[in-house]
Amino acid sequence: MKYHFDEETQRKGTGSVKWDFVDKAFKGRNLLPMWIADMDFRTAPGIQSRLNERLERGIYGYGGLTQEYYDAVIGWMKRRHHCEIKKDWICYTPGVVSALNFAVLAATDPGDEVMVLTPVYDPFYHAIEDQGRIALKVPLHNEEGFYTFDWKQMERAVSEKTKAIMLCSPHNPVGRVWDREELEQFAEFVIRHDLVVIDDEIHHDLVYEKEHIMLLRISEELSARSIVCTAPSKTFNIAGLQVSNIIVPDEMLRKKFRAQVQKNHAFSPNSFAVAALIGAYQDSEEWLDELLIYLNGNMDYFCNYIRERIPEFKVHKPEGTYLVWVDVSRLGMTCEEQKRFFVDQCGLAVGSGVTYGEGAKTYMRFNLGCPRVYIERALQQIETALVKKQGEKN
User: Fold this and answer.
1) Is residue 35 helix, strand or coil?
2) What is the pTM of this model?
3) Largest Cα–Cα distance in the chain?
4) Sheet with 113-118, side-by-side order of all strands
5) What is the CATH number of domain 46-283?
6) Which of 66, 242, 277, 278 is least buried, going by the fewest C-beta atoms within 10 A?
7) How far, in whole angstroms, is CA 91 from its chain's centroid?
8) pLDDT at position 75, please?
9) Taking Cα atoms as reference points, which of 51, 7, 12, 70 lies closest to residue 238?
10) What are the domain boundaries of the chain?
11) Does domain 17-44+285-393 match CATH 3.40.50.720?
């Protein structure tokens, strides 16, 4: 490979949330962090080059979105996702999490219900409940770690009070990349019940053996009621630069969304965000192509190791994201016991399933966006801890 994803980068002492705050967050010591969703790879050289050029100018005043910025976003969506979008549809926000909150405010009124399909990335719940709305939680159907929409439960739950639905595509934490047929049925459900869709596609570049289909490709009717959240942050490991693009085709819905962005003064990009996005979307496709090969190898290594050597766990290889959702129910532990086992016995910081909502108490989320040596180390530490645990039982 041209790019060195096996390189162990030094992140301790850099102010990294993932590395410098992990022991405090998990109440442990010298933990190997596999929790917060950023990667341990240097970003693409094309991005670094653009940032260096911007740095050398020496002036970091207020900036705006240039035509080159918009062209980069439009070109990326067309090349990578076969999706035609217009400049006017693009709304800048600092990040997708803030955008989820703005979208809930734009699409609903206080006291309205927003359907959320669980388990799911926990800021979904906060975006609903912190804004005075009601989270209508409907579980996905789980068959041995492979999740699908549960249409019957969705139909039973929806009511006249339900005004919006949140979709995670690809899905965090379960790793599904929804099929076209699933999305077409989803569109039929949404249109029939007159809902607005708040669609988080932040992981949409990170798919492996199948195609990600942007929601905007399903139908014009669905697009007209959709707020689609995208960003280069997960793809290129630049979350700290705070840049995302929210695509809202419908003019009235877009006005409502932009009004919330303006009200919260979240419309001005930092001095390096524009350069970083252009470097990502115009100069870094080769880097991404190699990254996907490496991440897919990480997924295979991790899942095969568990199937062959750790029978206490069950895992279904994700179709997208760099996150793996692991069933640890065979440990027979409570949620708190699971957390302490991974921290105290395995020396690992991983995401507890209970964070993600209904039906997830016996799952843990592992971040595999890292050099493979970290994954090897983590699995060996788990295996050693389980052998010791079994010995103590005997």
Assistant:
1) coil
2) 0.97
3) 68
4) 90-93, 244-247, 226-230, 196-200, 162-168, 113-118, 134-139
5) 3.40.640.10
6) 66
7) 19
8) 98
9) 51
10) 17-44+285-393, 46-283
11) no
